[in-house]
Amino acid sequence: AEVALSGDGRMGIVYDGNDAQFSSRIRARFTMTGESDAGLSFGGTFRVDQENYSSNSFRSAARGTAGAVWISGTYGKLSMGDTVSASEAAVGDLYDIGYTEGSFAGDYEEISYLTGDGENLNQGPNILYEYSYNNFKFYASASDGSDNLVCGVGAVTGSDAVCNVPGDDDKSDTAWSLAAAYDAGNYNVGLGYARHGDAKEIVLGGEATFNQFSVKAVIADYKDRGWAPGYDFDKTYGISAKYAANALTVKANWRRDEVNSLIAGVDDESFDSYGIGADYDLGGGATVAGGISKSDYIDDTVADFGIKFKF
Amino acid sequence: AEVALSGDGRMGIVYDGNDAQFSSRIRARFTMTGESDAGLSFGGTFRVDQENYSSNSFRSAARGTAGAVWISGTYGKLSMGDTVSASEAAVGDLYDIGYTEGSFAGDYEEISYLTGDGENLNQGPNILYEYSYNNFKFYASASDGSDNLVCGVGAVTGSDAVCNVPGDDDKSDTAWSLAAAYDAGNYNVGLGYARHGDAKEIVLGGEATFNQFSVKAVIADYKDRGWAPGYDFDKTYGISAKYAANALTVKANWRRDEVNSLIAGVDDESFDSYGIGADYDLGGGATVAGGISKSDYIDDTVADFGIKFKF
Amino acid sequence: AEVALSGDGRMGIVYDGNDAQFSSRIRARFTMTGESDAGLSFGGTFRVDQENYSSNSFRSAARGTAGAVWISGTYGKLSMGDTVSASEAAVGDLYDIGYTEGSFAGDYEEISYLTGDGENLNQGPNILYEYSYNNFKFYASASDGSDNLVCGVGAVTGSDAVCNVPGDDDKSDTAWSLAAAYDAGNYNVGLGYARHGDAKEIVLGGEATFNQFSVKAVIADYKDRGWAPGYDFDKTYGISAKYAANALTVKANWRRDEVNSLIAGVDDESFDSYGIGADYDLGGGATVAGGISKSDYIDDTVADFGIKFKF
Fold first, then answer.
1. Least CA distance to B287: which residue of chain A?
2. β-pairing, A213-223 with A199-210?
């Protein structure tokens, strides 16, 4: 059993359409691994910034709500903590672009999964099970037994032990997901299903590589999933591509969100986001990267440029 | 002088009498050690989750209110920070049970010491001195010079520099404790005394080991120690036992708290808590553990089960 | 690319003129370094207590507002994050005294620089560029593009994206600084200039070493720099000296602040602070240290004494 230390950093500039702002960060990660006498592997990992014990009990590695622990053997791998959902594990996100890996443009390359992934943040640990069989991989995930999506004002009558706020939502809708993926080497596909109360999600994704060129597409179909008041979140689909030539990788991505109006006479709406970017690997863990993006969610064209580090 | 890194994690389930909830965590610990030219040892230790610099100034290793530093030589060991009291150092707690080491049942195996140990949390660093002489060990501890037990509303008139709240308690009752322990190898005993203002504590504890069987008992007698309004905390006593057979350890514990009514016509009360548990050592730092517990403080029978890791 | 771990700790007593309080702390630092294939050095560093992700977004290494990252090559070194200003990099502070390295007396040995250094704390990352040419060193620094000095109440009309409070100051006065230093081995001098909006700073400092004796003096002249209401901060000057004899170092420092009254009939004022201290190196990273200080900013004579550790 041992604890390994790694880190990442970046320094650069983000242009938000009006001002160029400095953007930098430095983070450290603990990765712990061990093996029982019978050969069961176990481990855990978290970053220092995921340890916010006093300030955020729902995002703290020491409370099981950030980072993750796992055990792994011939029967698969079981993770607990801030895990992704089965859908996300099987399908994943579009290729990110830019120095800040998409966050300069609102991270639209990250598909909005129904569970895990920033949803149901006010819950306890999530759980994810993964099992490999030849080229297939199977996934199952579930959120904690208590649904703490709505705490405090606006919540259904009741008192939730996790929220500890009078008037909390005390119905316990576990969010869960099932998914499978097939990896043929030069292409892979994934299919996922998730539920949380009445809300449903089906996600299909695929990725293919032709020599130096790769392409990845994802389509997600939601049912009874909320959006802004008066709308339901209906569909997301997007495609991304990258081309690698020695140290240089050029990338592009595009995503559309479709939302349905719930009010007669009000139109449905759709939102497009797209961008291009490039990475240049300097070796030794340093990469120069930049991106430029346009999104219906953001008024201006935004861009970033800088250098990223892996330690 | 060097910094060593270790960690611990766990993943499992806690049953609170109504729901089974996922329970996991992952934590990292820094342990720093050095030696002066003259052979004085020194060091310090804290976990990442004990560093809450901005969010909790009374629980932060960089403020001396979590973790601890120490120096150690032929004249004994002196620790400062979030140390236990002399009483607690000499006597300690009952054996814990379960995957969460007692926290699923409110940690009743932890004797409620008058100083250190979660009391007087809003103070600066505590200090603990330990000295060994043959089989004897002597302990002395003290809290910081300022008593910040009562901050804000309800406090005695005055302004306390640590609380920084008008109306704070500005009397400075240092909490202190003296204790001694004797270790004969197959049995040990400890006796501690503590004071904080008018409140007093005498604690006696003993532990004996017969082959694979161990038993530990503690009795604490308090004077003028507060409890819920209308009551004084009078006594705590408890006993715990464990039996180890190869990788398996079976444990049981029981504790009773007696509180005296301060109001004529209202009865005194007592609260029982007890439980059983088992640990199975998988080797390599992994242990499967579970416990079941019943307490007058909790409406339902509670249980936990899971796997614990040491890295 | 690698991550190194170091730490520091201390335990002792601070006497605030009325009470002696325990004072201790323990901290861990990550230092990450790497080198690109072409020989560009890069790295970053932060302490665990500089990671306050949820509780303080303006003081968090993972947000670029604590700690720093850098790249370094033949064209100089560029740092981003919580860097000092060019002025401070070139001139620096007076010698500190005492076990707490000056903080027991309000850190008056730290010259009050116009940018970086605890000013403009509510901004994003700062940037510092350093270039060496023979015995000369040149510095340039700038704060982030947005001036978030005044957030919320009292701010100029507008909404600042960083403050996220209605009524924020939305004018964008970048604070910047230029400085140069000359190091002749047994003496060095530094000169710095800084601006932030209308406020200006010129700082001159010099240090000389004669055998075991060293002396350092700094003078800073400010223009249109605020102080308490009704005053402008006009000047700071101070001198410090130290004498090293084997393991023992004796130190003394003195600083005067001059503030100009902006109201007719109200006098200008000046504030003196001074102190003496001594360090005794025990070897292996342990140092016994103490100081005593008197300041016009503090009612009482204050002192500290304790042992410091480097791990």
1. A36
2. antiparallel
Q: Report ipTM for this prediction.
A: 0.90
* Least confident segment among A58-67, C157-166, C180-189: C157-166
Give the domain extent around A295. Answer: 2-310
Q: Which amino acid is at A161?
A: A
Of B69, B125, B127, the CB nearest to C309: B69
In this complex, is the C-beta atom of A116 within 8 Å of any C-beta atom belonging to chain B?
no
Which of A267-281, B90-104, B136-150, B217-231 is least confident? B136-150
> Residue B17: what pLDDT?
83
Q: List the subunits that have 3+ CB pairs under 8 angstroms with A.
A: B, C
CA-CA distances (angstroms) from residue B64 to B50, B68, C59, C164? 10, 7, 19, 33
Q: Are strands B2-15 and A68-73 parallel, antiparallel or unpaired?
A: unpaired
**Under 8 Å CB-to-CB from C289, ≥6 apart: which residues?**
C12, C98, C99, C277, C278, C279, C280, C305, C306, C307, C308
Q: Phi then psi for C211, rounded to 5 degrees?
A: 50, -120
Q: For chain B, list the contacting chains (3+ Cβ pairs, <8 Å).
A: A, C
Interatomic CA distance for residues B28 and B51, integer angstroms: 11
Question: What are C177-232's pLDDT values in tens digits?
Answer: 999 999 999 999 999 999 988 899 999 999 999 999 999 999 999 999 988 899 99
- Give the CATH number, domain containing residue C200: 2.40.160.10
Write phi, then psi, for A204 (nearest 5 degrees).
Answer: -125, 135
Joined together, the tokens standing for residue A57 give: 């009990």
- Report the number of distinct structural domains present in chain A: 1
**Secondary structure element (H or E) that encloses residue C274, with its range:** strand C269-283
CB contact under 8 A, B54 and C56: yes
What is the four-CA torsion angle of B205, B211, B213, B218, rounded to 10 degrees?
0
Structure tokens at A257: 């969100």
Contact B311 A127 (CB under 8 A): no
